[in-house]
Amino acid sequence: MNPQGLMDGLVAGTTIGLGAVGITLTYSILRFSNFAHGELISWGAYFALCVAALLGAAFGFLTTPIGPFSFGWVLPIAAIAAVALNAVLALIVDALLFSRLRARNSTVIIMVMASFGAALTLRNLLEFAFTGKPQYYTSALQIAIRLGGGIRATPDQLLALVVAVAVVGGVHLLLTRTAIGRSMRAVSENPQLADLAGVNVRQVIRIVWVLGAGLAAVAGVMAGLLIQIRPEMGLDLLLPLFAAAILGGIGSVPGAMLAGLIIGISEALAVAAVGAQWRAGVSFVILIAVLLVRPRGLFGRPE
Amino acid sequence: MSIELVSYAAFFLTMALSFAIICLGLNVQWGQTGVFNVGVSGFVAVGAYTSALLTTPPSTAHLGGFALPIAIGWIAAALVSAALSFLIGAITIRLRSDYLAIATFGVAVAVQLCALNLQPLTGGPFGIGFIPRPFGDLAGTPLAFSLLNFGLLVLLVGGLYFIQQRLARSPWGRVLRAIREDETAARALGKNATLFRLQAFAIGGGIMGLAGAVQGHFIGFIAPDNYQPILTFQVWAMLIVGGSGNNRGAILGALVVWGIWAASAALIGAVVPADQEARAATLQIVIIGVALCLILLLRPRGILGELRVVSRHLDPRPRHGAPAATKEISGAERS
Q1: pLDDT confidence of residue B312
Q2: At what angle do helices A233-248 and A279-293 cross, to 10 degrees?
Q3: Percent helix, strand and coil across chain A, each rounded to 5?
Q4: Which of A212, B139, B230, B258 could bond to B16 as cystine, CB 3.0-4.6 Å?
Q5: From the centroid of its chain, how far is CA B2?
Q6: What is the signed CA dihedral for B73, B79, B85, B88, rounded to 10 degrees?
Q7: pLDDT, block means (10 residues), chain A with 303 residues
Q8: B36 touches chain A (CB under 8 A)
Q9: Which of B93, B233, B282, B299 to mutate to test the interface with A (most CBs of A within 10 A)?
Q10: In this complex, which of A101, A120, A239 lies closest to B233 when CB atoms are compared?
Q11: Could you tell me which chain B residue has the CA closest to the CA of A125?
C-alpha cells in the first residue's frame, strides 16, 4: 500500500462522509432511511453547474482561476447557491410526499418505498435534462503538489479536505451547542415527548431537511469538482453513504464523517489490492461486517 | 397478420407472467410478512445465472455449461436464491426493518458487480448466451412456440398462485400476518417471529430466483444490464399497483404495469426521433416513479386490497346486521 493511495482514499472519503452526515441526521430525526439522499447529491452538483454556467456567461471575469485552484469565484458562489436550491428542493419533496405520509402515520417501510420512488423520479429528471454525458465545472488542469513522504495532492483536493472538516465541525457545534441543536436531539430521542415539552417538531424536521440537503450539495460539488458530474453519481454513492452512516452509528455526526473516511480509505486499499473494478463491493463487505459484529456502529447507542 | 398478433400477444403475456412470478415472490416477503427487499434485481439475477450455468452447452467463455435439463436449472435457481436470501436474512432480520432494506440494496449492487467482474463464472459484461429455451425445437413454428411457452407460464403462475393461497390460509401464513400486524402479541403467543420472517424471506427469494431463471430461458440470453435497480422498481410498482398482500393483485399488477411499460415504450418509439429515444425513455421512468408515489399517497392498498379474513374457518361473507368481515385493510390501518 503506497501512501498516495491513502491520500486519494482520504479525499474520496470526505465526499462519502459529508453525504453520510446528511443520511445519519435525516435517519435519526425522520426515522427512515432515505434512498433519495444520493439524488440530493447529484441535484446539488447540477444546481451548482447551472449557476456557475449562468454566472460565467454574465460575469466572465469570475471564471479566472483563484490562486492555485482550478476554478474561479463562480464555483464557490455557485456552491452556496446550490446549497440553498437543494434545501428548497428537499423541502418541496417533503411537502409533496413525506409530510403527507407522516401525517397519516405510515410505516417506516412505506416511507422508504416512497423515497425509492422519489429517487428514481429525481435521477431520471436529471438524466432527461442533462443526458448521461459526464460534465465538468472546469477544464483547467492542475499540477499536484508534493507534500513529502511520496504523497501528492492537487490544491483542489486539499481544499476539499479542509472544507469538509470545517463543515462537519460546524454541524457538530450546531447540534451540541445551540438551542436548535438541543431541540433536534430531543426529537431524535423521543418525538412525542419533545412535542409535549414545547419543541416545534415540524420546524426541526424542516431544519433537518435543509441541513441534509445542504451537506449533500456540498458533497455533490466536491465530487463534481474532483471527479465528474453525472446523473448516476448519487446512486453510485448511496451504498457507501449507508455503510458509513451505519458504521459511524446512526445519529452520530463525527461518527459518520470518520466512517466516511474509513470507507474511502478502504476503497483505495481494495483498489490497490484487487483492482478498481471491485471498488463498489467494499461498502457492501463493510456493511455486512458491521451488521454482523456491531450493528450499532462505532459511536451509536445500543437499541 | 392475425398470427403475428397472436404471437406478439403471447410474447407480451409471457413476459408479463414472468414478472408476475417475481411479484408473487415479493408478495410473500412484503405483502404477507412486511419484510422489505430493495434488492429484488439481485435475487432474480442469481437465479438467472444459476440456471444458465447449469443448462447451457459447454462453453469456453465462462465456467461450466453443464447442459443439464431445464427443469434442474430452474429448481437449482430457486434453491440458490433461497439460500442467499436466508443468509442475508439471518444477518439482518433481527435488526431494524430498514437495515434489511439497506442490506438487500447492497446485495443487488454486489450481485451486479460479480456478474460484471467474475468473467470466468458469468461471462462478464457480455453475459451468457445460448440458454436453452423451453420447446426450443419448435422455434421453426413461432406460433406454436410462443403459445406453448405462454401455456407453460400460465401453469407455473397458476401453480404458484394456488400454493401461495394455500400457504396464506395455512396456520403458517396466519402466523406471518399476526407477526406483521403485531409482533409483540405474536411473540406473547409463543411464536418465534424471527424464524417465521426468515422462512418467508427465503421462500420469497427462492421464487424470485425461479422467476429469473424462467425469464432467462424465455429470452435465451442474460447480461448484467438486465438486472439494474430499475427492475426492482418495476416489480415494486407492480405489487403496489395490484395490491400488496393479495396474490391476485400481484398478478394483476404485473399485467397492468408491464402493459403500461410496453405501451409507453412503443409510444416513445413511434413519436420520438431515434436519436432522442434514450432521453425520452428516462421520462418513462419519471412517470412510473410519480405514479408509484401517487398510489402510495392516494390508494396505498392498490387496485385489489388485501382481504382481512383469510381463514376458511371464518365465514368471509357478510351476515345480516353484522359488519362486512371482508373489509379491506387500508394502508393507514396497517401501520
Answers
A1: 57
A2: 30
A3: 75, 5, 20
A4: B258
A5: 31
A6: -100
A7: 81 93 92 92 96 90 82 92 97 94 83 88 92 86 77 88 93 92 90 89 93 96 92 93 94 93 94 88 92 87 66
A8: yes
A9: B282
A10: A120
A11: B286
- CB proximity under 8 Å: B 103-122 to A: 103, 105-107, 109-110, 113, 116-117
Give rounded-to-5 percent helix, strand, coil for chain B: 75, 0, 25
Cell of B269: 418509439
**Distance (Å, rounded) from C-alpha B235 to C-alpha A66?**
50
Residue A192's CB is within 10 A of a number of other CB atoms, namely 9
Q: What is the dihedral of CA A158, A162, A164, A169, to 10 degrees?
A: 160
- Alpha-carbon gap, residue B142 to B159, rounded angstroms: 25
| Dist CA B179 CA A226 (whole Å) | 48
User: Residue B89 is part of which domain span?
Assistant: 2-334
> pLDDT band at residue B329, thresholds of 50, 70 and 90?
very low
Quote the pTM value: 0.88
Nearest to B113 among A107, A132, A281 (CB): A281
Number of Cβ within 10 Å of residue A262's Cβ equals: 20
Rg of chain A in Å (alpha carbons): 19
Which three-class secondary structure state does DSSP give residue A230? coil
Rounded to an integer, what distance in angstroms lies between the CA atom of residue A209 and that of residue A203?
10
Which triple of cell numbers denotes residue B199? 422462512
> Number of folded domains in chain B?
1
Give the number of other Cβ atoms within 10 Å of residue B134's Cβ: 16
- Please report which helix (H) or strand (E) contains residue A148, including its range: strand A145-148
Q: What crossing angle do the helices spanning B142-169 and B193-219 adopt, rounded to 10°?
A: 180
> Residue A32: phi, psi to the nearest 5?
-150, 155
Helix axis angle for A108-130 and B277-298, nearest 10°, is 160
CB contact under 8 A, B105 and A35: yes
Amino acid at A202: R
CA distance B316 to chain A (A): 27
